[in-house]
Amino acid sequence: MANDQQRLLYLFELPQEDIQAPRGGGSVLFKLESDEAPPSVATRVGVSPSVNLPVPERKDVTLQDLGTATSVPKGSAFSFFIASHRKAARDLCDFFMKTSGAEDLMQVAARVHGKVNETLFVYAISFVILRKKELRSVRLPTMVEVFPSRFVPQEALSKAQLQINRMDPNQTEPVIIEHGPEFSGTHLKPEHRISYWREDYGINVHHWHWHLIYPPAMGFDRDRKGELFYYMHQQVIARYDIERLCLGLPRVEKLDNWRIPIEDGYFPKMTVSISGRNWGSRQDNTLPKDLRRRELGEFVDITDMEIWRSRLLDAIHQGFMIDRNGDKVPLRDDVTSGKRGIDILSEALEADAELSVNFPYYGDLHNRGHDILAFSHDPDNAHKEEMGVVGDLGTSLRDPVFFRLHKLVDDLFQEYKVTQPPYTEEELFLPGVRIEWAGVVRGNEADVLLTGWNTREFEASRGLDFSGKPVILRLTHLDNKPFDYHIQINNDLREPKEVTVRIYLAPKFGDREKEMDFMEQRILWAEMDKFTVLLKPGKNHVTRSSKESSITNLEELTFKDLENSGPGNTSEQDAFNFCGCGWPQHMLLPRGRPEGMVFQLFFMLTDYAQDKVSNPGGVRRCANGVSFCGMQDAKYPDARPMGFPFDRRPAPLLQGLPVNTTADYARLGNAFMHDITIKFLGEKLN
Ligand code: CUO
Q1: Helix (H) or strand (E) holding 125
Q2: Where is the signal peptide (predicted)?
Q3: Whole-number average pLDDT of the chain
């Protein structure tokens, strides 16, 4: 008898093949009762299935019930940035949400499979699994295995197929596809030097997963959803800029002039699916143009983008937005509704058409920005070309232009942030608690951290059919050696004190190889960890492993992991799907340099009594990705603004002295700064 995990897991396998094709290496078969199994697929593998998933006829599943879900053509790209595609997703998710329990969802989804776009299908079943309480024990397999063609060039996949065509039919050894660290281009173009980072599977999977949890216009809101859109993307930009500094590249420039060509092109070399449709390529120096994709209902003028940006800037500088009734909506935190100024701004900027205070007026700057860029090579469909990768949630970080667009978005958020009053000394200081020393230790060595390459294997043959043969993807990625933070803290109070420990990392020197002032370094600080600790009176030695980071997700679950995971209903697994979101652990540290690069760690303790967020019904703790992804069925577990204390201008005076650099914050006893070195070994880490 199949368990919930098995019932739903195989809906993710071979998304482009007939639902009755054997899955699980031939051991699993969806059997659509009353339909004839297509013999070509059912008999090809020649293994008799051990798990049969019977799917009775469902008269309640008709094409009409799917609304606009069938409007996205099969085999083509699906983009959450396109309004008509979002509507299709909403319709399909609403339909799947009406099911009750894993068996019902499996039957309905199996009947819908093959009738809608493949990416849309996977998006919708993932969305529903994440939101249905009764499906909390079901985990999602990694996108790398569901859609391998989003992670490696088509050439590599075709080579594997050719190899299979030529090999002895009795061979059972898998074919191995090696990929990286040389990715989409040569070093003739400086931007290619950082392609190992942009094309990393983990950060692209993270981005897909994050947007699955926080989608716009899907008929729901979440605590601090807008603020998290700002913060998660701000941190991605900060980390990208840090990586660029490691490589001697200048920091990314915002795309604020849509009337000049975009210098850097991007050639993904990948296909959307087995349909053979290629992701669109953008030549160097492509001029963005008004978008006229009639088949998608997408019409945007460059002028619209300029007007929307200008209106958003007006709102930021005036301190209020104007709603559809013409009333002012102040851009400040509202205690009654729980909405913060940053949420209001973010929902108008992202934009969430349902949550924006005035969608027709403030427009759709960020989503449409993705669209204009994704179609800049064929804005009017004259060439019938597919969108570029920047239009897809699971591939957009591959393209350098993603970061230029999101730098523009972040620039608007920062414009708002600098209008906010700096934190007062009272908000920053925690009397009675002092950090005596803090740093990092790896093995026997203090303050030197190491990065290098590593590999991770995935089964490409779970997502694509290679004539029923196993094919393994061996992906090279940046990695780091685990380390521990050590923090010595004196609690001078007479009683125990619970504190939040906040840890950030930034390069010590900017692109001019000079120490940065507070404002320059402010937006480069990358959050590394945030946790609570109970300090006893007197001396405390706190240690924390880098693997416990509040931003990271430790593992990508493969089909194999999930097949071996048992019934999948233990309490730790309960919160997993949500927590499965997070920055990849292997990308926790920036690369550094072969000769070593100096970074600064910033530690700060704040009063947990003030940071605490009450969550009625108790909090579902999970170790993964909380800072970037929040928590399931719970409020974001930190009352302070995200990015605190670096999200605002510095306090002009601290303890009576001016603040010029971050080191001036470390004058407070509850903060501490420490230099460390990150060395890139350039070889495979053991
Ligand atoms: Cu995540 Cu633009 O929001 O890609």
Answers
A1: helix 118-131
A2: none
A3: 92
Q: What is the structure's pLDDT at 566?
A: 57
The pLDDT score that the predictor gives to residue 24 is 92
Does any ligand 1 atom lie closer than 6 A to the CB of residue 207? yes
Residue ranges matching CATH 1.20.1370.10 in the chain: 4-137
Q: Which CATH architecture has domain 191-417?
A: Orthogonal Bundle (1.10)
Q: What is the CATH number of domain 4-137?
A: 1.20.1370.10
Check 350, 459, 556, 563 and give the catalytic one. Answer: 350
The reported pLDDT for the residue numbered 50 is 82
Spacing, Cα 346 to ligand 1 middle (Å) = 12
Q: How far is the CA of 338 from the centre of ligand 1 (A)?
A: 24
For every residue of 68-120, which 3-state class applies, written as one string? HHHHCCCCCCCCCCCHHHHHHHHHHHHHHHCCCHHHHHHHHHHHHCCCCCHHH
Does domain 425-684 correspond to CATH entry 3.30.460.10?
A: no
Cβ–Cβ under 8 Å, residues 125 and 96: yes
Given a cut of 70, the residues of the chain with pLDDT beneath it are 1, 35-47, 182-184, 566-580, 616-623
How many A from CA of 406 to the centre of ligand 1? 7
Pocket test of ligand 1: the residue of 212, 233, 399 to mutate, having most ligand atoms within 8 Å of its CB, is 233
Indicate if 350 belongs to the active site: yes
Task: Check if 404 has its Cβ closer than 6 Å to any atom of ligand 1.
Answer: no
Ligand 1 within 6 A of CB of 370: yes
